[in-house]
Specification:
GO terms for molecular function: oxidoreductase activity, acting on paired donors, with incorporation or reduction of molecular oxygen, NAD(P)H as one donor, and incorporation of one atom of oxygen. By secondary structure, the chain is mainly alpha-helical. It has helices at residues 18-24, 32-35, 82-105, 114-124, 127-144, 148-175, 179-190, 192-205, 210-240, 244-249, 251-274, 276-305, 309-326. It has a single domain, classed as Orthogonal Bundle (Ribonucleotide Reductase, subunit A), CATH 1.10.620.
Length: 331
């Protein structure tokens, strides 16, 4: 008796889920990101309206002035769904841990010049309160936004900001005693150099239009703050003056800012392309928040750059305008 083993290919009856196929057009193979994003927004069977906001449903398109024909036009160019996001951040966490270990085991923090150590503590440690505020604002966007393509990565953004607050705290504990955290909190609450930024963060807490909040926090404030502090001051100025150890301990903030900038710009570009009125509306929001953010960051620029601060802030604002124009925003 002889038995022949053969490989038989069984063609699947469908390439993906029906709701995904209807959106991407035809029964084509879908990526994990598409299957984990498209069609997940709640659109019906919302029961009663919330008693605390009877003018809206729980998931309501009218919670923003933005008009979208297709809320799934918001896509993440990084293709992050939960699995890919967690794997990417785990790799970055390992790299950041290695950098902290390198600085600590070789005593590089102890070798920092006193003025560099003092500037790093004065400049970076209070920023953990800013990061916490950014996390809260992106939690709001994730909770009240519409369209899984933007609310899902907004929640990732919120978690990332909590991680950045923790990295800022670890830097402070490596450079100084725990009392430095109390001093940074006191500076955040009392020091005149931080009050404009604190007021800006707190004003964002009461902004009810979730896409305007996205523009104010993720595009404008973070679009100026991270290039100023972590790219220009820490990586540029402090590293050249003997503060390379500080730059090593803030490498996550720099890499994260460059990565998330692609996602932020993609959302604004999608909104501008979807409806002609959105480009002017977003332009108005950017013009509203940019002067406030730039003025709030001026004291930080002066702390780190001295006489160069005004010129650097002008360059950063010009770069932000260029990003907006490239995304299709009308001034």
């Amino acid at each position: 008796m002889q038995m022949d083993l053969r490989t038989v290919t069984i063609a699947p009856q469908r390439q993906t889920y029906g709701h995904v196929a209807r959106h991407i057009g035809g029964d084509k193979p879908a990526s994990r990101y598409q299957e984990g994003t498209i069609g997940l927004q709640t659109t019906g069977n919302q029961h009663y309206r919330p008693l605390w906001d009877p003018a809206h449903d729980y998931f309501d398109e009218s919670r923003t002035k933005l008009k979208m024909a297709d809320w799934y036009a918001f896509r993440d160019p990084r293709q992050y769904y939960y699995g890919s996001y967690v794997l990417a951040r785990a790799r970055q966490q390992e790299a950041a841990e290695a950098a902290f270990d390198f600085v600590e085991t070789r005593g590089l923090a102890d070798a920092l010049p006193d003025d560099i150590r003092a500037l790093a503590l004065d400049l970076i440690l209070p920023l953990r309160h800013v990061a916490w505020g950014a996390s809260m604002n992106n939690d709001f966007i994730a909770a009240y936004g519409y369209g899984t393509g933007i609310t899902q990565p907004a929640l990732y953004y919120a978690m990332d900001q909590l991680g950045i607050a923790q990295f800022d705290t670890r830097l402070g504990l490596l450079l100084a005693e725990p009392e430095a955290l109390d001093a940074a909190k006191e500076a955040w609450l009392r020091d005149v150099r931080w009050q404009s930024l604190r007021r800006l963060v707190e004003d964002m807490f009461v902004e009810q239009d979730w896409f305007e909040l996205f523009v104010a926090q993720d595009f404008v404030l973070d679009g100026l703050l991270y290039p100023l502090v972590f790219q220009t001051i820490v990586d540029g100025d402090l590293a050249q003056r003997g503060g390379a150890a500080v730059a090593m301990m803030t490498q996550f903030q720099n890499e994260w800012a460059a990565e998330t900038r692609k996602w932020v710009d993609a959302q604004i570009k999608a909104a501008c392309a979807d409806d002609a009125g959105n480009a002017a509306l977003i332009g108005w929001w950017i013009a509203k928040w940019t002067p406030r953010a730039a003025a709030a960051l001026c004291p930080l620029a002066e702390m780190g750059l001295g006489d160069r601060s005004a010129a650097v802030m002008d360059e950063l604002c010009a770069a932000l305008d260029a990003r907006a124009a490239k995304a299709g925003v009308r001034a």
